[in-house]
Amino acid sequence: MSDLVNVENLTIDFATNFGDVQALRGVSFSLKEGEVLGIVGESGSGKTVACRAILKLIAGNALVKSGRIMFEGSDVLAMKDAELGRLRGGQAAMIFQNPSTHLDPIMTVGRQVGEAMVVHQGISWRQANARAIGLLEDMHIKDAARRAVPIHMSCRVACVSG
C-alpha cells in the first residue's frame, strides 16, 4: 500500500525582523490509509507547523528551506489554490488547537459541519443537514436532529493540534 501522506526532510523557517527563526529541521514521516500517527513534543517544537504544512496553511513569512510534502503522490507545496481547495476539507482537514476560537458560537453545529460538506463536496444543504445529523448520531449525541437544528440551505486526514 502506498503512502497517503509523505513528508520528507521538511525544513521550515520563519522570517522575522530579527532574522530567521527555525521551526522545523529535517522532519520526515509517512502515513498510509487507515494509520494513525501521533506527533508529540514540547510547546514550540513545531508540531503545529508540521500539520499546517501538510495543508499548505503556513504563514506568509514561512520559508520552506528544504523537503517536500506529498499527498497521494501530489506535491502539496506546488499545488495551486484550486487544487488546495479540493485537498482542504475534502481530503484532509485540521482540527485547530483551540476549537473555541474556531467554532462559531452563533452557528449551529449542523451548519458548521454541513458547511464544509457543501463547500468541499458540492452537495446540497439538505443533504449536508442529513449527513450532519447522521454524524452526530454516530458520535452518540443525544437528540442529534434537535442539536443540529436544520441548516437552511449540506476526511481522510485530520491533524489535531494541541
From TrEMBL:
Protein name (Swiss-Prot/TrEMBL): ABC transporter ATP-binding protein
Top-level division of the source organism's lineage: Bacteria
Major localization class: membrane
Keyword annotations: ATP-binding, Cell membrane, Membrane, Nucleotide-binding, Transport
Pfam family, one: ABC_tran
Gene Ontology CC annotation, any one: membrane
Record-stated family: Belongs to the ABC transporter superfamily.
GO molecular function ontology, one term from the record: ATP binding
PANTHER family linked: DIPEPTIDE TRANSPORT ATP-BINDING PROTEIN DPPD, OLIGOPEPTIDE TRANSPORT ATP-BINDING PROTEIN APPD
Record-annotated ABC transporter domain positions: 24-150
UniProt subcellular location: Membrane
Organism of derivation: Mesorhizobium huakuii
